[in-house]
Design goal:
single chain; alpha/beta; Rossmann fold; Cytochrome-c3 Hydrogenase, Chain A, domain 2; 2 domains; two-stranded antiparallel ribbon; about 10% strand; elongated
Length: about 425
């Protein structure tokens, strides 16, 4: 949850600048963001989202400007002279540039700046440090930027870290926001654009403050585990597990960490609700979690906790599975087939229930319809249709039953009108 109540901008924004920086990155976060559809990057950049300001994006790959013209707004944002509200988005982990002090090198840079009279590459970590105090919000996109990710794995020589570790727990933007974290390797694009839109709606005063968990993740996106929304979860419940890649069953026993990983990729899909790791057969390796990759290594091997959970699931699942197959057997039979004693299918032989299965189904049906009316039957205590003429109050007034051809009381035949022949025939029956 947010630790403080951020401020709303005094006046509604017509536009807001977004500065995109990259650290120790593969640019996968940029690629996944371009694939977002709800909302789309195009909608945000063109200002077509109702109530939201137009976004002016400064991206080293997607921007039209280049060279000094491209870098000028960055320098203005660092100096606090941009004159517009802006957001900083950082992808990739932040390497410790102090490790290069001795040799004068750098890990990651964007543009150049003057150092001791010479123009030198400008490390993006230094750019972030100068821009963050003036930013309306700082967003870390991808696991490398949020927690450190692969560049921060054990044994790395870069001293890489996430934005929270770099800026510190006390960091607040000009509007009172801590670092917003959108993890994933790569993150689901809509998770990012949706969060940006939600924050902008709050800053515009037309929506509530989005709820973030204690790690700065959007709570509505990263509360459920992969397992809770997995399309293969039913197999786990019944104790059926994949033995090799390509099997359709639960992937826990071939290296899936889904039960302990907070991620919505199964529910949302990779792009436009299509794809997603487990949906296409890949075990979860925990890429959204702060402990990735070290705490989920080695990949594609059975997690230790599976010994307990899958064994329990196999035991209980055996009984659950067979009970469901029994119910499914009768669900696959029509009443007509039950009466005639065989299934009239030309596609193959369907075995008839055994005597024991029929007895079990009898008691199962008794429990199923306890307190309710079984289809095709009618209680003797009261009519099925009260007051409609089929055994109700209207019958006392002379209403006829469907096969009753007697003349109702007070009926006068029409001997001269257009229906004379029909009424004459009725009175003669």
């Amino acid at each position: 949850m947010a630790t403080s109540q951020p401020a709303v901008v005094a006046d509604a924004l017509d536009e807001i600048h977004v500065f995109w920086l990259a650290g120790m990155s593969c640019d996968g976060c940029s690629v996944s963001t371009v694939g977002a559809t709800a909302p789309s990057v195009e909608g945000l950049l063109t200002g077509n989202m109702p109530g939201l300001p137009k976004i002016v994006l400064h991206h080293p790959v997607l921007s039209v400007e280049a060279g000094d013209e491209f870098m000028e707004p960055f320098h203005q944002a660092m100096n606090g002279t941009l004159g517009k509200q802006f957001v900083v988005v950082y992808e990739g982990s932040i390497a410790d540039e102090r490790k290069n002090d001795e040799n004068g090198g750098y890990w990651v840079a964007l543009g150049r700046h003057e150092v001791d009279g010479d123009m030198q590459p400008f490390p993006t970590a230094d750019i972030l440090q100068l821009m963050a105090p003036h930013a309306a919000a700082v967003i870390a996109i991808g696991t490398c930027a949020t927690w450190g990710g692969i560049p921060a794995a054990a044994g790395n020589v870069t001293g890489s870290m996430g934005l929270m570790d770099f800026l510190g727990a006390d960091y607040r933007s000009t509007l009172g926001l801590s670092v917003v974290n959108i993890p994933g390797c790569a993150p689901q694009g809509d998770n990012f654009t949706e969060t940006v839109a939600a924050v902008l709606m709050f800053l515009q005063g037309i929506g509530p403050l989005p709820e973030f968990d204690s790690l700065g993740r959007p709570a509505w996106l990263f509360t459920d585990t992969v397992h809770q929304t997995c399309t293969r979860g039913g197999f786990y419940e019944e104790g059926i597990f994949a033995k090799e890649f390509g099997d359709k069953q639960c992937l826990v026993e071939i290296g899936c960490w889904g039960p302990v990983v907070q991620c919505n990729i199964n529910k949302r899909g990779a792009i436009n609700h299509v794809g997603g790791c487990m949906n296409v057969g890949a075990p979860c390796i925990g890429c959204t979690m702060p402990g990735f990759p070290d705490n989920f290594s080695p990949f594609y091997t059975k997690p230790p906790g599976t010994v307990v959970s899958s064994t329990t699931s196999k035991t209980t699942g055996y009984f659950i599975r067979n009970l469901r197959r029994f119910s499914m057997m009768y669900g696959n039979r029509s009443n007509q087939w039950n009466k005639q004693g065989h299934v009239t299918s030309g596609w193959g032989h369907v075995a008839e229930p055994s005597a024991l299965q029929k007895v079990a189904h009898y008691f199962y049906s008794a429990m199923q319809f306890r307190g309710s009316v079984r289809p095709g039957s009618r209680p003797e205590s009261k009519p099925a249709f009260i007051g409609t003429g089929w055994g109700g109050a209207n019958e006392q007034a002379g209403a006829r039953r469907p096969n009753d051809k007697s003349t109702p009381p007070g009926f006068q035949p029409d001997s001269t009108g257009p229906h004379a022949d029909a009424t004459k025939e009725l009175t003669q029956q």
